[in-house]
Write a structure and sequence with these properties.
single chain; 376 residues; 19 strands; 36% helix; elongated; binds guanosine-5'-triphosphate; binds magnesium ion; Translation initiation factor IF-2
């Protein structure tokens, strides 16, 4: 059998080599990049990371391929549990083009649909129901938050609504936002806002879209384009309908029966209730009592609230909820997942803390100049 070399094994497991080395050393070894790993130990490490070790000779599929196969199997098995889920939408655009007004108008359309009197709490995201279908909106202050989340690998958004003021047309931040949406490969809906103002020019905006290779549907392109006037509440219904249409095309699905996981939208400390985090569930169902790990933080879900401030017992895919019971404030964009129990969550969070501390020490210790140790 060929030897299991640290460097290759780390690659096969998708781990950073130093992470694997530290794990091996914790288990009492003295591993370095080119060390060989004992098969029994390798099996354990692989298992811990959810892999099945299978040693193959050169040219045959190795650990990685085997692992991929296993994962695919899981996906296939899961497909029968997949049910459609609401889209997660964010609104992007140039300053003052009406992002906030549009969010408000959409929220109002929802209130008019029967939730009158409900006091909406700002939790960073909210969900509306339109003709029996839900849509989650991220209440982001702009594309800065959007790209921050993306930088963390958290692609929580399915659809980006690009707001373009009908009088101004495309502006620098419109283009920047468009670039972000395209890089994130999210579906695009263009809302041409301020259609009520003097100087509104829908055709000019459409021409600008065409120049940017996102020609509107009625110009032979594929981009859904909806003229609106946010402050007048005009066109809001069709915008929502178009978002739902786009969601249908995307066939968004999730398995509500899986272990819960998702993304942190924002977090803060409440004087009375301690750290709070608004999360969006992406997979599975999050329930009160669940144990969560999120980077170096963990939680035992004590209580959850929806965007109406109501106590909820569970949250299904795409639902935004505010969670109480955290050990600290997880960062926005961080991924959380449910684990067996609170002890496991705490253990995993501590491991991550340790790893972060080590990484920090390691980078602090990186010599700017050649040190005495290096010379010897
Ligand atoms: P920032 O958050 O600062 O980037 O701005 P924003 O994109 O959220 O724009 P906001 O919703 O704050 O709107 C900016 C200004 O445009 C406000 O004075 C709004 O009242 C006005 N406005 C927004 N939508 C419309 C519209 O459809 N028609 C008219 N006439 N004014 C609008
Ligand atoms: Mg705003």
């Amino acid at each position: 059998k060929p030897p299991i070399v640290v460097r290759d094994f780390a690659t096969a497991l998708g781990l950073k080599p130093f992470r694997l080395i530290s794990e091996l050393n914790q288990a009492g070894g003295f591993a370095s990049m080119n060390s060989n790993i004992d098969e029994a130990i390798a099996t354990k490490v692989a298992e811990k990371h959810g892999f099945l070790l299978e040693i193959k000779h050169r040219g045959e599929p190795g650990v990685q391929q085997q692992a991929q196969k296993k994962e695919k199997q899981v996906e296939e098995d899961e497909s029968k549990f997949l049910v459609s889920r609401p889209p997660v939408v964010c609104i992007l655009g140039h300053v003052d083009h009406g992002k906030t007004s549009l969010l408000d108008a959409i929220r109002k359309a929802n209130v008019a649909a029967g939730e009158a009197g409900g006091i909406t709490q700002h939790i960073g995201a909210y969900q509306i129901e339109y003709q029996g279908r839900k849509i989650t909106f991220l209440d982001t202050p702009g594309h800065a938050a959007f790209s921050k989340m993306r930088a963390r690998g958290a692609n929580v958004t399915d659809i980006a609504v690009l707001v373009v003021a009908a009088d101004d047309g495309f502006m620098p931040q419109t283009d920047e936002a468009l670039k972000h949406a395209q890089n994130a490969k999210v579906a695009l809906v263009v809302a041409v806002n301020k259609m009520d103002v003097k100087g509104a020019n829908l055709d000019q905006v459409k021409a600008q879209m065409q120049q940017r290779n996102i020609a509107p549907e009625d110009w032979g392109g594929e981009t859904i384009t909806v003229p609106v006037a946010a402050t007048k509440g005009q066109g809001i219904d069709s915008l929502i309908e178009m978002i739902l249409l786009q969601a249908d095309v995307l066939e968004l699905k999730a398995n509500p029966k899986a272990e819960a996981s998702g993304v942190v939208i924002e977090s803060q400390v409440d004087v009375g209730r301690g750290p709070l985090a608004t999360v969006i569930v992406q997979r599975g169902t999050l329930r009160v009592g669940d144990a969560l790990v999120c980077g170096a933080c963990y939680a035992r879900v004590r209580a959850m609230f929806n965007d109406q401030g109501e106590n909820v017992k569970e949250a299904t895919p795409a639902a935004p909820v505010r969670v109480i019971g955290w050990s600290g404030t997880p960062e926005s964009g961080a991924i959380f997942k449910a684990v067996k129990n609170a002890r496991e969550a705490e253990k995993l969070a501590e491991e991550e803390q340790l790893r972060l501390r080590k990484a920090a020490t390691a980078s602090d210790a990186t010599p700017k100049e050649v040190s005495v140790e290096q010379l010897f």
